[in-house]
Write a structure and sequence with these properties.
The protein has 14 helices and 20 strands. It is of the alpha/beta class and 425 residues long. The protein has 2 domains: 2-249, Ribokinase (UDP-N-acetylmuramoyl-L-alanine:D-glutamate ligase, 3-Layer(aba) Sandwich); 253-424, L-fuculose-1-phosphate Aldolase (3-Layer(aba) Sandwich). Helix 10 (321-332) packs parallel to helix 13 (378-386).
Length: 425
């Protein structure tokens, strides 16, 4: 997936284009950039702004749009009317989701959108927005009202399909965002940290753009972005002499699992692999003793029309059943650290055996009543009952009363799991 960021350059990498690239990478998408302004700034202040000419902006956009398939666009800093007109003229016909982050003023109180350009912004940029993400102050400037609900409706009247006003309501420990979709509105609550930081707004909108590229719903994208920003503020670093810069720690395991989830989603007709109970994809630490040592999706990979979307974030303990399967297998074969559950298809079992894969199974009908009545014990029982001396590529069962048949594919890492799926499709 390719996500294009259109905005200003920040040499401190706390915000702007540089920050967006970091966020895109953390979400497993490829970041493309078009620079609209060069700033001289650090963690204390912005000292100079050099707007890029409309001709160069158009040239940058033409270069990118003519070569790459764009799955989402994020629009950040647009300093003046000429920049706004240039961007509008080049992307007004794009069919992908567009996230507009109205960069009006920096954390250090420098004006980043000229007052004389606001009318052009309202007319040309807001109507492009699949989602616009102003904070309370920005919403007031764009809508001319302090009422958050009214401001969201006014911004929607300007053409934005969906409006998220961040920081709708704040207490000491909680921060709420107001979300207005086309036919509903709701509030998303999240944890708050009292840290003045540089970059959280850019992190949020870049996360939203990444999620839309990955086909997440607006609700799930906003929820995921809220958690991402919380973690980036929590992990923020005081690198310079001024305010802290947001920073999101993403482990190599998270990157590897995230990339493999995307590879799985991109398999042709992969939606047919999703069972009724949905799918999880996991990756464990070495020799996991419990599911808290296994990275998985806090929700599931779910069917949404003709697409698969990731409902939930990657976190340790995020999976129950597939993580338990990995824990059990790794007790005997510690090199096995990843697995995915998919829909049972007899033809896939036949093909796996023909490919020389090690396939074993268990009969859920033979499970004792005590085991069935004990919460979350069926997977442990099933895996342990069929494991012998053969390291499995696949373990399956044909179901039981009220229990869906299932295939679990194992590997040393997520990439190997995806290769095995491709081999038996």
């Amino acid at each position: 997936m390719n996500v294009l960021s259109i905005g200003g350059s920040d040499p401190s990498s706390g915000a702007g284009i540089q920050s967006d690239i970091k966020t895109f990478e953390n979400h497993g998408v490829y970041g493309l950039t078009v620079i609209t302004a060069i700033t001289s700034q650090n963690t204390k202040k912005i000292s100079k702004i050099l707007p890029i000419s409309s001709a160069i902006i158009k040239s940058q956009l033409e270069s990118v749009l003519n070569d790459f398939k764009i799955d989402a666009i994020k629009i950040g800093m647009l300093y003046d009317a000429s920049i706004i007109k240039a961007v509008h003229s080049m992307i007004k016909k794009q069919k992908c989701p567009i996230v507009v982050d109205p960069i009006i003023e920096s954390t250090t109180k420098t004006i980043l959108l000229k007052k004389s350009a606001i009318k052009h912004y309202k007319k040309m940029i807001i109507p492009l927005a699949t989602i616009i993400t102003p904070n309370r102050h920005e919403a007031k400037i764009l809508a001319g009202t302090t009422s958050i609900e009214k401001a969201a409706k006014e911004i929607q009247k300007l053409g934005a399909k969906n409006v998220i006003i961040t920081g709708y309501n704040e207490t000491k420990n909680i921060i709420e965002d107001f979300v207005l979709e086309s036919k509903k509105d709701y509030i998303l609550k999240g944890k708050k940290i009292e840290i003045i930081n540089h970059g959280s707004g850019c992190n949020y909108s870049a996360s939203i753009a990444s999620s839309l590229a990955l086909k997440r719903s607006i609700h799930d994208a906003a929820e995921y972005a809220k958690e991402y920003v919380f973690q980036s503020i929590k992990d923020s670093k005081k690198i310079g002499k001024g305010i802290s810069i947001t920073y999101k720690k993403t482990s190599e395991m998270q990157k590897e699992l995230s990339n493999s989830i995307i590879d799985f989603q991109n398999i042709k007709n992969s939606i047919k692999l999703i069972p009724e109970c949905q799918t999880n994809f996991v990756f464990s630490k070495i020799k996991p003793k419990k599911i808290d040592m296994v990275l998985g999706i806090s929700g599931r990979l779910v069917k949404a029309g003709d697409m698969i979307i990731q409902a939930g974030e990657l976190r340790y303990g995020g999976s129950q059943h597939v993580a338990t399967a990995v824990v059990e297998v790794s007790k005997k074969f510690p090199e096995i650290r990843s697995a995915i559950n998919i829909k049972y298809e007899p033809s896939m079992i036949v093909k796996a055996k023909k490919k020389g894969m090690k396939v074993i199974s268990y009969d859920r009908r033979k499970e004792s009543k005590n085991s069935k009545q004990k919460e979350n014990s069926s997977i442990s029982w099933g895996i342990s009952s069929c494991l012998k001396s053969m390291k499995p590529d696949i373990i399956f069962h044909k179901g039981d009363m009220g229990k869906e048949p299932m295939i679990i594919i194992f590997g040393t890492n997520p990439k190997q799991v995806v290769k095995k799926i491709l081999a038996i499709r």
